[in-house]
Amino acid sequence: MSKKKKYGQAMKWYRFERWLYVHHLSIFSKFVFRLMQLFLGCTIPPSVEIAKNVTIPHFHGIVIHHECKIGEGTFIYQNVTLGGRNGKPGPTIGNNCLIGAGAVILGNVRIGNNCNVGANAVVITDVPDDCTVVGVPAKIVKRKNDL
């Protein structure tokens, strides 16, 4: 018997909001957006491109820029900010990433596939595939090839 995966309450609201947005029901998608802000305490605009299997287990305090792209299988924990910087668009997150609680990713940066961003890290530069970054500003502490 297969167990159904839980993606979090915020993802259910986002998927509904995104469906309204894609079907040109923008007034209703804006209403759902405001409800998400009010009841869930997170800001995920309908224009954000979030792939399948993205999990937001603790949705409180999440802020995502309206031009972000998030890849498949990504985990996003509470109080994460994915935002623009100096008028530049938001970040692009690769597949199978983990973004720790309180992490801040600013500007038009790319987080590679299979990356881990540590809790409270501040990322302002690109991160290559298969890396772990921590600190303020974030520095690479582990690569897949390093054992």
What do you see in this structure?
There is one protein chain. The protein is an alpha/beta fold and 147 residues long. The protein has a domain at 48-143: Hexapeptide repeat proteins (UDP N-Acetylglucosamine Acyltransferase, domain 1, 3 Solenoid), CATH 2.160.10. It has two helices and 13 strands, in the order ααβββββββββββββ. A five-stranded mixed β-sheet has the order 4-7-10-12-13, with no helix packed on it. Helix 1 (9-22) packs antiparallel against helix 2 (26-40). The longest helix is centred in the first third of the chain and has 15 residues, at 26-40.
Topology of this protein?
Blueprint lengths: L8 H14 L3 H15 L8 E2 L12 E2 L4 E2 L4 E2 L4 E3 L8 E2 L4 E2 L4 E3 L3 E2 L4 E2 L4 E2 L7 E4 L4 E5 L4
Parallel strand pairs: 1-3, 2-5, 3-6, 4-7, 5-8, 6-9, 7-10, 8-11, 10-12
Antiparallel strand pairs: 12-13
Provide a short characterization of the protein structure:
Helix content is 20%, strand content 22%.
Identify the strand order in the major beta sheet: 4-7-10-12-13
Output the number of helix runs.
Answer: 2
Residue fraction in strands: 15-25%
Q: What characterizes the major β-sheet? A: 5 strands, mixed
Descriptors for this entry?
UDP N-Acetylglucosamine Acyltransferase, domain 1, 5-stranded mixed β-sheet, 4-stranded parallel β-sheet, 2 helices, 22% strand, globular
